[in-house]
Amino acid sequence: MLVTAMGRKRVLWSVAAAALVAVVAIGLATAGTGSGPSRSAAPSRAVAEKRLAGSPPALAALHAQASRLLPGGVDAFEKRLEQLRGHPVVVNKWASWCGPCRAEFPEFQQASVEHGRKVAFIGVNSSDNDGAAKRFLAQFPVSYPSYSDGDGRIAEKIRSPGAFPTTTYFDSQGRRVGEHIGVYRSRGELEADIRRYAR
Q1: In the chain, at which end, N or C, are there fewer CB atoms within 10 A of the end residue's CB?
Q2: Is residue 153 a contact partner of residue 140, using CB atoms and an 8 Å limit?
Q3: Domain residues of the chain, as ranges?
C-alpha cells in the first residue's frame, strides 16, 4: 500500500514537472508574437516634420502635441472635435495592455504622417493606466495626441464598443461615418478605410 502511494506521488510529480516544462517552452516560443510591435515604425522626427510642414492650423496644433497623453475627458475631446471641423477625423481607441492595439500601432505611426496634412488623427487611451500609456507612447511615438479615458466615457460618447482596438471615423462635418472593430492587420487595410471614410 505504501509503495503504491509513493508510486502515485512520483507519477504526479513527473506529470506536474512535464506540464511546467511545456508551459515554459510554449511561453518562450511565443514570446513577442501577437503582443505588439517589436520596434517602432515611426518616421524620424525630421522626416515627419518635413511631411507635415504646411498643415492647416487645426492639424498643426495636433502635431505640436505629438505622443502626448491629454487630460480633460469628454469635454476636452468634444472641444477638439469642434476645432477640427472642416477636416476628417480618425479616432483610434487603444490601451497599452491590449496586444492587438500594440500590434497595429506601426500602421498608425506611418499613416498619420502620410495623411496628416489633410486628415486629423486622435488617440483615445481607454481603460488604461496613464503611466503605462505614456511609457508606450515614448517607445512608439505618433504624430498626434491621445486623450486619457480611464473611465471609458469618451469611448461611450463616440459609441465605441467594448472591443479593443476600435477605430472610429468622422467626416469633415463632424458626423460619425464609420468604424473598424478590431486590429488592422496591414497598412493596406487601414489605408482602404481612410480612403473610404476620411473625406
Answers
A1: N
A2: no
A3: 1-31, 45-197
Q: Mind listing the pLDDT tens digit for each residue in 120-138?
A: 999 999 999 999 999 999 9
Single pTM value for the model: 0.79
Encode pLDDT of 75-121 as tens digits. Answer: 999 999 999 999 999 999 999 999 999 999 999 999 999 999 999 99
Q: What is the 3-state secondary structure (H, E, C) of the chain?
A: CHHHHHHHHHHHHHHHHHHHHHHHHHHHHHCCCCCCCCCCCCCCHHHHHHHHCCCCHHHHHHHHCCCCEECCHHHHHHHHHHHCCCCCEEEEEECCCCHHHHHHHHHHHHHHHHHCCCCEEEEEEECCCHHHHHHHHHHCCCCCCEEEECCCHHHHHCCCCCCCCEEEEECCCCCEEEEEECCCCCHHHHHHHHHHHCC
**pLDDT attached to residue 37:** 65
The CATH superfamily holding the domain 45-197 is Glutaredoxin (3.40.30.10)
| More confident: 50 or 63 | 63
Identify whether the C-beta of residue 88 lies closer than 8 Å to the C-beta of residue 172.
Answer: yes
